[in-house]
TrEMBL record:
Domain VOC: from-to ranges: 156-277
Species assigned in the record: Popillia japonica (Japanese beetle)
InterPro entries: GLOD4, GLOD4_C, Glyas_Bleomycin-R_OHBP_Dase, VOC_core
Protein name stated in the entry: VOC domain-containing protein
SUPFAM superfamilies associated with the record: Glyoxalase/Bleomycin resistance protein/Dihydroxybiphenyl dioxygenase
Domain of life: Eukaryota
Key word Repeat present: yes
Family: Belongs to the glyoxalase I family.
Keywords: Repeat
């Protein structure tokens, strides 16, 4: 679920509850139409880390965790009446419902954040701090918190860690096919990290012994790139004979920018979205009024739950 979206994977996660989406972050200033001076061409594709999407079953509790414990802000919120043409909501085409639940697999391991302030807020709010300074969000998603002051001049999100069934195969795909830089490789501990720029949060792949089970709560990682580079990605993936889940398609959001995306899958089935950067910057502009909209719908969810439980009495 953070969401976001990021200029630099900036402290943001994107939570998707079937046909409703919530974008929250620590920083709102980056939602500017101003582009960076240039996309640095460290690889063939000049990408930008954006967000990781979660499916959640209780957005009230989730919103409390991300706002009150991690100290994030709501950046943008949308309500949809039907599913997404790019499969953003998985196999679901109906409205979000609090009565739905999502079986969690083992594909997502953790998100690492540098923020001793989050640990302090957790203790003040009696939110369990698990061994190793782990905070667990509703739905079982774990956040590894580094017990150091949250930086004010850079992204506190260090990395998103996903499971791999074969590290070398993951390296061949993420570095070899997609062209992300490999910033580290730890053969002994069977893990490697990737990204487009050194200052952004990294994607870490950690090899595990069990088969990858994505279950129904599977997520999706997103990057942006220039519009004219999306066909390059399309061709690279076709040349490598790897998976395209959704070919290049334009997605409309009522009253907002239309964006073009291509959805891929790595060898373990991890979903990857590449969205055109220019339109996405417009679509993801900070909407300060959306927090009140979200809270209104959360209240509506809770009222409906009470009515179902007590039969309107």
């Amino acid at each position: 679920m953070f969401a976001a979206e990021k200029r630099k994977f900036k402290k943001e996660f994107h939570y998707q509850s079937v046909t409703r989406s919530l974008l929250i972050s620590w920083n709102t200033a980056r939602y500017s139409r101003t582009k960076p001076a240039e996309f640095r061409m460290s690889t063939l594709i000049s990408g930008r880390a954006l967000h990781y999407v979660f499916k959640i079953g209780d957005r009230g509790s989730s919103a409390r965790f991300y706002r009150e414990i991690l100290g994030m802000k709501v950046l943008r919120h949308e309500e949809f009446t039907e599913g997404c043409d790019a499969g953003c909501n998985g196999p679901y085409a109906n409205r979000w419902s609090k009565t739905m639940s999502y079986e969690k697999g083992n594909e997502f391991i953790s998100i690492t954040i540098k923020s001793k302030e989050s640990l302090e807020r957790a203790r003040l709010n009696n939110w369990p701090v698990l061994p190793g300074n782990i905070l667990e969000a509703p739905g079982g998603f774990q956040y590894h918190i580094i017990d150091e002051p949250q930086p004010t001049d850079k992204d506190p999100v260090e990395k998103v860690t996903l499971a791999s069934s074969n590290l070398q195969r993951s390296i061949d795909y993420w570095h070899g096919v997609l062209g992300l830089q490999m910033f580290s490789k730890d053969t002994e501990n069977r893990r490697a990290s990737f990204g487009f720029k050194p200052e952004e949060a990294k994607l870490e792949l950690q090899q595990i012994d069990d088969p990858i089970n994505r279950a129904k709560a599977y997520g999706r990682i997103a990057f942006s790139c220039p519009y004219d580079q999306q066909p390059i990605i399309d061709q690279k993936v076709k040349d490598a004979n790897t998976t395209i889940l959704t070919p290049l398609i334009s997605l409309e959001t009522p009253g907002k920018a239309t964006v073009r995306v291509i959805i891929l899958a790595d060898p373990d089935g991890h979903e990857i979205c590449f969205v055109d950067d220019e339109a996405f910057r417009e679509l993801s502009e900070y909407q300060p009024q959306d927090e009140k909209i979200l809270d209104r719908f959360i209240k509506k969810d809770e009222s409906g739950e009470l009515e179902r439980k007590y039969g309107g009495k």
